[in-house]
């Protein structure tokens, strides 16, 4: 599992959201969100920005480019 997928799962679980609710909140299709979290697909830049905005984290934090999250 990549750092990104681990972070995405961690952020969603911290907020006690279902994948469907998280996808809806981000404005991303549920199927795409599920694939991002499973590591089956990499998000586009616009999807990454939507995810970071929704979870109120930086892109670096989301993709694991920082020391701590």
Q: What does this molecule look like?
A:
- This protein is 65% helix and 0% strand.
- It has 69 residues and is mainly alpha-helical.
- The chain has one domain: lambda repressor-like DNA-binding domains (434 Repressor (Amino-terminal Domain), Orthogonal Bundle), CATH 1.10.260.
- The mean pLDDT is 94.
CATH superfamily membership, which one? lambda repressor-like DNA-binding domains
CATH structural architecture: Orthogonal Bundle
Structural class: mainly alpha
Number of domain modules: 1
Low-confidence stretches: none
Overall mean confidence score, pLDDT? 94
Helix content: 55-70%
Which outline best applies? globular
- Radius of gyration equals 11 Å
DSSP helix count?
Answer: 5
The CATH top-level class label? Mainly Alpha
Q: How far apart lie the N and C ends?
A: 17 Å
Number of strands: 0
The fold-level CATH name is 434 Repressor (Amino-terminal Domain)
How does the major sheet shape up? none
Helices and strands, in order, run as HHHHH
What amount of the residues lies in strands?
under 5%
Layout: helices, strands, pairs:
Elements: H1 3-14, H2 19-26, H3 30-38, H4 45-55, H5 59-63
Quick summary:
This protein has helices at 3-14, 19-26, 30-38, 45-55, 59-63. The chain is mainly α.
């Amino acid at each position: 599992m990549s750092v990104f997928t681990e972070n995405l799962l961690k952020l969603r679980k911290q907020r006690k959201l279902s994948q469907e609710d998280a996808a809806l909140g981000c404005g991303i299709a549920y199927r795409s969100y599920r694939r991002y979290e499973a590591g089956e697909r990499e998000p586009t830049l616009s999807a990454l920005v939507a995810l970071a905005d929704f979870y109120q984290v930086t892109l670096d934090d989301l993709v694991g480019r920082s020391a701590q999250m």
